[in-house]
From TrEMBL:
UniProt cross-references to InterPro entries, sorted A to Z: Secre_tail
Keyword Signal attached: yes
Keywords associated with the record: Signal
Pfam families to which the protein is assigned, alphabetical: Por_Secre_tail
Protein name, per record: Protein containing Por secretion system C-terminal sorting domain
Signal peptide location: 1-21
NCBIfam families: Por_Secre_tail
Record domain Secretion system C-terminal sorting: where: 216-290
Length: 293
């Protein structure tokens, strides 16, 4: 099963550091989340807790985030979060209504209605499989969800899309998030296998990096993909990666003195993918779809 193969990659990406706490609401947690608005401008959002608050008689942790420290060092309140018996509840800053963010108790075949910060209402997720990730003798439960994007939740960490982005792709298609790294008490416990580092950004690089786009065709594609790279000052040299919606790097290579690439997709399943290219001038990305229907 594909999710089992993916778990092997996940296991290899989790560092062998001591696990101090499995609680999603532990005050020492920090999440670094890559954000690509329109799939070209890449920045890193940082989420952490900053104090407590009381809402309608319930105690919550106040979650704050920093959009990108290369632009601003300010922190912004985004949600109040509490946890009870494997259920994680949140109140977003735009509302006083509590919603379910996670149910870490889900078993195969069971469903839950959870809320992403981008969605206007709850979306249904269904557990198709579970597994256990062991870090220095401590197990964390992993839940695989039945949707097009093979979402997975890890106990105490949340969705691999980011702490507030569970089921994100049920309601948006032009914004890409994925969890780069997870820390507890400043110790790195998890790094996504497809991440370049725990902090990715092209904010503030040369303007040509931001305005020039990759050209991918046909899109949707079936068996082959043509790529035309934008002309940079440094030429066309760089490194490319094809990343699936689970954050797994499935194709990679280098680019030389030609702007054109030809990629074979025959071994890849249908779905949404991200083509990322890194050059000396920065990085750009664009999504494409494989569909053989």
């Amino acid at each position: 099963m594909q999710v089992k193969r993916l778990l092997i990659t996940v296991l290899a990406a989790i560092l062998t550091l001591p696990v101090l706490c499995q609680q999603f609401t532990d005050q020492h947690n920090q999440w670094n989340v890559a954000n690509s608005n329109g799939w070209t401008v890449i920045s890193t959002e940082i989420y952490r807790y900053w104090g407590d608050t009381l809402i309608q008689g319930n105690n919550y942790r106040k979650m704050v985030y920093q959009p990108d420290s290369s632009v601003s060092t300010d922190w912004y309140y985004i949600a109040a979060v509490r946890e009870e018996n494997g259920y994680v509840y949140g109140v977003f800053n735009r509302s006083e209504e509590e919603c379910l963010l996670y149910n870490f108790n889900l078993l195969p075949g069971e469903s839950a209605y959870i809320q992403s910060i981008w969605c206007t209402g709850p979306t249904q997720v269904t557990c198709i499989d579970t597994a256990s990730v062991e870090i220095n003798g401590t197990s964390r439960r992993v839940i695989f969800l039945n949707d097009t994007f093979e979402e997975r939740w890890t106990e105490g960490i949340g969705s691999h899309f980011g702490p507030l982005y569970a089921s994100l792709y049920m309601c948006v298609t032009d914004i890409y998030h994925h969890l780069l790294c997870y820390y507890n008490d400043n110790q790195l416990l998890y790094m996504d296998p497809g991440a370049i580092s725990c902090y990715e950004t092209n904010v503030g690089v040369q303007q040509e990096t931001l305005i020039q786009r990759l050209k991918l065709w046909p899109n949707p594609a079936a068996l082959h993909l043509q790529v035309e790279l934008p002309r940079m000052v440094s030429g066309y040299g760089g490194v490319y990666k094809v990343v699936n919606a689970a954050g797994q790097v499935i194709l990679s290579g280098t680019t030389g003195n030609t702007p054109f690439l030809h990629l074979s997709l025959t071994s890849l399943p249908d779905g949404i993918y991200l083509f990322r290219w890194e050059s000396q001038n920065g990085g750009i990305a664009s999504k494409f779809i494989i569909s053989r229907l």
